[in-house]
Write a structure and sequence with these properties.
By secondary structure, this protein is an alpha/beta fold. Helices cover about 50% and strands about 15% of the residues. The longest helix is centred in the middle third of the chain and has 35 residues.
Length: about 575
């Protein structure tokens, strides 16, 4: 959306204002997780115009630089703050003279303030906030890019980022006007809603009230707590974009391809968004439909190149030269994506992949539990990558409402024996999160209810058309329509939870809908759009599914998330959390 450009401009301007407030040259020391985020707003050449002479990565190494001013740009995490404290104290002992500044993103926390005070550095380090929240990754996709949102919310129970989410809704209103309808489900969604209402009231009663009180462009906001659907992110992606993330890892909207894709020694970093017409056409397709599409596109490009033979006049030659740049750009993009497809094919041609998919599909359908357990046991005994059997164990447990006590103990014991006692803590954490548990008699199986009540499993999986899919199940190979996206679709089309409110109460005790006074859209006014906001993380499969829903229903959906995640990143967060 056009306002994404405005959002970038405002955010960029705020950073430049902070930098210009420090007279003289300065070194910019950046939190590693913000380096690629910063690329969405500015570059080093532009930063140099604002006095930056060096850009350095924040780590434990000593910074050897004579520059008088040093600026730390970082998210206020205690371990990063401790790194800054160690560097400053070390330099003070060596009698090195610097002026220290800390730009906290999006705002300083009390925990970090306490650390500075504990080490006596409150006067030594000048702290400012860079209120970065919504980061435009594409026209229809905004993210807070909070990589620790999942582990903070669901592993640690840390709620400090609830304010960041609520504040981003205020930012949203400043761009699009008052949000008239809000629907939500889940504990953290309810927390966000409560704090958003407080912040909104404070803003309207204060001097900083800025949003347009006219006709709102947002029709409704849907807040989805990640904790209401754990099954979807644990399913293996089958869209091109989902597989790119799974195989190469998409970080802050960028992917890095090595020699195996490009044939070049130096890695190539590619921004993935709709500015590339080739990528926009293939990203949401099922992987099996991508290569045929690219093959057809190559033929079309060749037809374009052949038009040079028709350029017999100066006018026609000028027209061809104008078109040539676009043809070459598309050709490079096609070559790159064909290379990526070939790598994905090689990665996925494991003899165990089909077994994994069989377990996944059986778990979703609620069939062949004995066979599922046998395959998981085989994977554990063969000591394949630790992530694979752990993901399947969690998926089977979540989809089945828990594992039978004997099977549960057997898998736990074998997993620890194969991968080591370090994973005892991981398994305990997964138990606390409800991802792994024993079945309890007469306990309702919520996911089984969902698949039947909401018809999430297609009737004829074997004849499912992946090239021209009838529903969102194509993002998982025709096996399952993502629950989270089905909830969003229902809320969009029915203006709330009416018709499934009783089921929603099984997912969470926190289910809500409320209206806010706003000007009504008049006949002939431009169509509004719906915001679907994932609190706690969203997968590319869900992004693809929501794009399908928007296209099929002729509506506009703006997707917002605290972070983009997948099964691998979530399980790694559980393992590494300290």
């Amino acid at each position: 959306m056009d306002d994404a450009i405005k959002l970038k401009d405002v955010t960029r301007s705020e950073l430049f204002t902070l930098l210009d407030g420090i007279s003289g040259e300065k070194d910019l020391v950046i939190d590693p997780q913000l380096i690629k985020v910063l690329d969405h707003f500015t570059n080093f050449s532009t930063l140099k115009k604002h006095g930056t002479v060096k850009m350095l990565r924040l780590d434990d190494t000593h910074i050897d630089s004579p520059t008088k001013n040093r600026v730390y740009l970082m998210r206020p995490r205690p371990h990063l703050c401790q790194t800054v404290i160690s560097q400053v104290r070390g330099e003070k002992k060596k009698k090195e003279s610097h002026n220290y500044y800390l730009f906290a993103v999006p705002r300083m926390t009390q925990a970090c303030n306490n650390l500075l005070e504990l080490h006596g550095l409150v006067e030594e380090i000048q702290v400012s906030d860079w209120p970065l929240d919504l980061i435009p990754l594409d026209k229809d996709l905004l993210s807070l890019e909070l990589p620790a949102a999942f582990s903070d919310f669901y592993v640690a129970g840390d709620q400090h980022d609830v304010r960041t989410v609520a504040q981003s809704l205020i930012t949203l209103q400043s761009l699009y006007g008052k949000i008239p309808q809000v629907h939500g489900i889940g504990r953290y969604s309810a927390m966000v809603k409560d704090l958003y209402q407080i912040l909104d009231e404070d803003q309207r009663s204060g001097s900083s009230f800025t949003y347009d009180s006219g006709v709102p462009r947002i029709d409704q906001l849907i807040l989805l707590d990640r904790g209401c659907d754990w099954v979807t992110p644990l399913c293996a992606p089958t869209t091109y974009e989902g597989l790119l993330d799974d195989v190469f890892g998409i970080q802050n909207g960028f992917v890095e391809f090595g020699k195996n894709v490009t044939g070049k020694e130096k890695p190539v970093r590619l921004l993935l968004n709709s500015s590339s017409s080739v990528y926009a056409d293939i990203r949401s397709r099922h992987f099996s439909a991508v290569h045929p599409f690219l093959s057809d596109l190559i033929k079309q490009l060749q037809v374009g190149y052949d038009r040079r033979h028709e350029a017999t006049t100066v006018t026609k030659m000028k027209a061809f030269v104008t078109e040539l740049g676009s043809l070459k750009e598309q050709h490079r993009a096609v070559e790159t994506h064909i290379g990526a497809c070939e790598v994905i094919n090689r990665e996925k041609k494991s003899k165990f992949l089909m077994k994994q998919l069989q377990v996944e599909h059986a778990a979703l359908e609620g069939t062949d539990e004995k066979e599922c357990l046998e395959v998981i046991e085989e994977l554990i005994n063969r000591q394949v990558t630790w992530l694979i059997p752990l993901r399947l164990m969690c998926l089977l447990s979540l989809a089945s409402g828990g594992l039978k006590p004997r099977a549960y103990q057997m898998l736990k014991t074998q997993y620890i024996q194969s991968y080591g006692y370090d994973y005892v803590i991981t398994l305990n954490r997964l138990e606390d999160m409800g991802w792994l548990k024993e079945q309890v008699e007469k306990q309702p199986q919520v996911f089984r209810t969902a698949t039947k009540r909401l018809k999430l499993i297609p009737r004829d999986v074997e004849n499912y058309d992946l090239a021209d899919p009838p529903d969102t199940a194509y993002v998982f190979g025709g096996a399952y329509c993502p629950l989270s996206c089905h909830l969003a679709q229902h809320a969009i089309l029915n203006n709330g939870w009416k018709g499934i409110d009783d089921f929603c109460q099984q997912l969470s005790n926190d289910v809500f809908t409320f209206s806010q006074a706003a000007s009504q859209r008049t006949t002939g006014a431009s169509k509004g759009f719906t915001v679907v906001y994932f609190v706690g993380g969203c997968t590319f499969s869900e992004v693809n599914a929501l794009r399908y829903i928007a296209k099929k229903n002729g509506i506009q959906i703006q997707i917002i998330t605290t972070n983009l995640c997948n099964a691998s990143s979530m399980l790694k967060d559980v393992v590494s959390y300290n």
